[in-house]
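Subject: complex prediction, re-run

Hi both,

The earlier run crashed halfway through, so I resubmitted it with identical inputs.
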Amino acid sequence: MVSRADTSILIAGAGPTGLTLALELARRGIKPRIVASSDGPVAESESRALGVNARTLMLLGPSGVADRIREQALPIEGLQLSSLGEPLLTIHTSILHGQTPALCILPQGTTERLLLERLRAFEVEPRWHAKVKSVDGDPETPEVTLIGNDDSGETIKPTILVGADGAHSIVRNSLDFAFPGEALENEFFLADYAYGAPVDVSHARVDFTNPGVLGCIPVRQNVLRYISTLPDFEDRIAHPHPPVEQTWKSQFTVSFRHVEAMSKGRVFLAGDAAHIHSPVGARGMNLGIEDACWLAWLISEGREAEYSQLRLPAVRGVLRQTKMLTALATMERPAALAMRNRLLPLMAHVPFAERSLVHGIAGLDTPHPPWIARTH
Ligand SMILES: Cc1cc2nc3c(=O)[nH]c(=O)nc-3n(C[C@H](O)[C@H](O)[C@H](O)COP(=O)(O)OP(=O)(O)OC[C@H]3O[C@@H](n4cnc5c(N)ncnc54)[C@H](O)[C@@H]3O)c2cc1C
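This time it finished cleanly. Structure:
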């Protein structure tokens, strides 16, 4: 075991995962270095993740970030499913937790800024515009080559290196971590619209277009996100008011992959660097924050060697769940569509099925963090 006093920790990446890891270490008295190739947190108007689940709020409680998120986030009361506008099922996402909703909405850029603000209180500031070019040497003694935006180079030999550098992780690739999985053929399209008046932000909505899907998720009191597998989805949107502005537009493909081991020697992977999947279920950022909290706790206990073994079952479980939900949303065979649309309304009569789905949306289907007392 490495003495914590002698440990120099380098975190590559200052997205939600890297920032959470730095904060969770700093609040335990371990000051890491954190570097990122970007120039700062993601723009608040170009937010990928919106859903912050109950598990994340539990994990970010001790640092005080959860309270700040609660002050600003929109709690989601439920998910309304329909088929070509005909209601199929409403899933009540507040049924698990009296006070804490299973899911609340806050743009990823705001979550990153709240993490950063708290991190600064511990006098830790990410070094922006600093790109990890390569990681060489033995994973027991990694050598990291950093390039600044003025092309200045630096070699760092940390005791612990954490790759929180996103889906295209240089740390993962440099050290030949296998990243097996599959890519979905479907392309996803996304557009955020701002309205001149408040809109209904109590529910997220998913309309099956048989085949295809058009989802509508609240972003702010006057902003809605539409997300679809249909290239012409914008023609199908029933706007609540005439939109005043399209604030963001994007399209992306989806893969389901995870590393076979989340560490090699003194190198650890967390967040999208270790696992990627579809946004259906809103688990990606939340799972990365969870990795970061577990890794910080294990490092502080001198037990980081257990990280991969402890986290992989949770990662596999979340990938299985998101794959199943994505298949349900993107299925195309007419017989399967008809079966789905007949079965979903029946779920309203099976409280156990709804509870288990909401448990997953809340992120409470992964092991309870041992350093946080159970409240019920
Ligand atoms: C449309 C969409 C919707 C989503 N919705 C949700 C949702 O509702 N809920 C949810 O939980 N998740 C959601 N996700 C997933 C979520 O956005 C990601 O899982 C999350 O951003 C991963 O965080 P991360 O910190 O691991 O990686 P990233 O956010 O990708 O951050 C990576 C960091 O590494 C840095 N970096 C990259 N390369 C280098 C390098 N070579 N050297 C140094 N630094 C580097 C970057 O600058 C950045 O700071 C969604 C994703 C998409 C695409």
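The chain has a mean pLDDT of 93.

- K.
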